[in-house]
Structure formats: structure tokens, C-alpha cells
Amino acid sequence: MSELTEIRNHEEIDSIKTKRHKGCLNHPFYDWITLLSTLFVPLVVGILTIVLPLQQQNLSNRQNENSQTIAVHNRLKDMEILHDQQKQTILNTYEQDLCNLIFKYSSINNYNDTNNDGIDDDNDDERVSLVIRTKTLYALRQLDPVRKILLIQLLIDSGIKNRINLSHLDLSSLTFPPGSFYNQLNFVNIIAKNLSFKRIHLYRSNFSYSILDGSSFQQSNCSYADFSYASLQRTDWTNTDVTQVVFNYTNLLGAKITSQQLATVQSLKGATLPNGTIVAI
């Protein structure tokens, strides 16, 4: 019996050893690993063969898009520089033409002073003024806000400003440099909505018949100025000196101006006050 038992034990041990050396489906694990390795490598190569060209194509597309974006940006920048140069050329040309016209005007006046037969002064003055007005309006229509201010300053400095008619001129949304002196400025019958005249000296200036809706005169000196028949709706007069200002028939509807300020003006005849009340004539 002992020998039989020993034989059975040996058979069980051999059976266990055999099972250990066999894998799934009676194949060793080594064979399966070898098979999977053989299949995995071509699979990876195939996937990479498909994926890598797609990635390269996407990268190429992104590079092309970036190149196009940069090209468009550079083009817009070049156009902006070109437009800026054109505006500066217009201003420079206007300045040169103005100097020539002023010199010609002075020469005509000097000639008339030394010749009794002279040319009609009024006709010459009118012709020169008309030419300057035409050139001024043409230049202002094409200039940017900053250069418009420079052109107006040029007119003021040249002394020709009050000799020409600037009526119907559109100066809307301009911002004049704070602290500037524009005393006796003559802006009659102009369009200048949302104009900024903050901390500006406008002593004895004339804005009659002008449209100045939404403009700001904060902390400015507007004493003795004339705003007769002007539209000043929603204008801002905070801390503004309006001593002896003429507001005859002016529309101040919605304007920021105090009753204390209005008490210092010269006249409000027929004016529309901020609250909509019309002053009796």
C-alpha cells in the first residue's frame, strides 16, 4: 500500500509540474508573449504610419495659418503707417501753402500802400481768404483729430484765423490740450459735438449759432464768451467761469450748470434752461 501511495504522489507531483509549464489553451506563456510581440510591433508601426503624417499636416496647417495671420497683421500695419504718412503730408503741404498765401497777401498789401493806382484791397483780401478757407476745409476733412488740433493752432498762431470763415466746419469729438489759451477764439456756426474744452482759456470767444451738444467746458475760463443761438444740450460746465457769458436763445437742456453759475452770466434771454424752462424774453 505504501508503494501504491508513493506512486500516486509522484503522479500528482508530475501533473502539477506539467500544468505549471503550460499556459492558456495548453500553450506556454512564453509562446503567447512571443506571438503578441510579433503582432504588436507591426500594429504600432501601422498606427504611427497613419498618425505621424496627420500630425505633420496639422502642424503645417497651423504654421500656414500663423504665417497668414502675421502677413495680414504686417499688411495692416504697413497701411496704417502709409495712412499716417499721408495725413502728415497733407498737414505739411497745408502749412507750406498757408505760409505762401500769407506772404502773398502781405506782398499785395505792401504793393497797394506804395501805389496809388493799386489793386482793390477788399477783392484781394476776399480771394486770399476764400483760398485759405477752401484749403483748410479740405485738409480738415482728411486729418485725424490730433492733426486737426495742430492745424487749428497753426491758424491761430499765424493770425489768419479770424480773417477766414470756418462756418459749418465739423470739429466733433476733438480734445483740445488742457491748459491751452484760445482767448477770442472765433468758432461761429460750426458743428462740434462731444468737444472737449477742459481747463481751457476761452475768454471772449464766440461760439454763436454752433452745435456743441455733449461737449465739456469743465474748469475752463469762458468769461465774456458768446454762445447766442448755440445748441449746448448735455454740456458740462462743472467749475467753469461763465461770468458775463451771453446765452441768448441758447439751448442748455440737460446741461450740468448750477443756478449760481447762471446768476453770473450777462444774458439768458430766450434761453432753454437745463430743466427745460424757457427764459422769458
Automatic annotation (TrEMBL):
InterPro entries given in the database record: 5peptide_repeat
Keywords: Membrane, Transmembrane, Transmembrane helix
Superkingdom of the source species: Eukaryota
SUPFAM superfamilies: Pentapeptide repeat-like
Membrane-traversing stretches: 32-54
Presence of keyword Transmembrane: yes
Entries under Pfam families matching the protein: Pentapeptide
Protein name, UniProt field: Pentapeptide repeat-containing protein
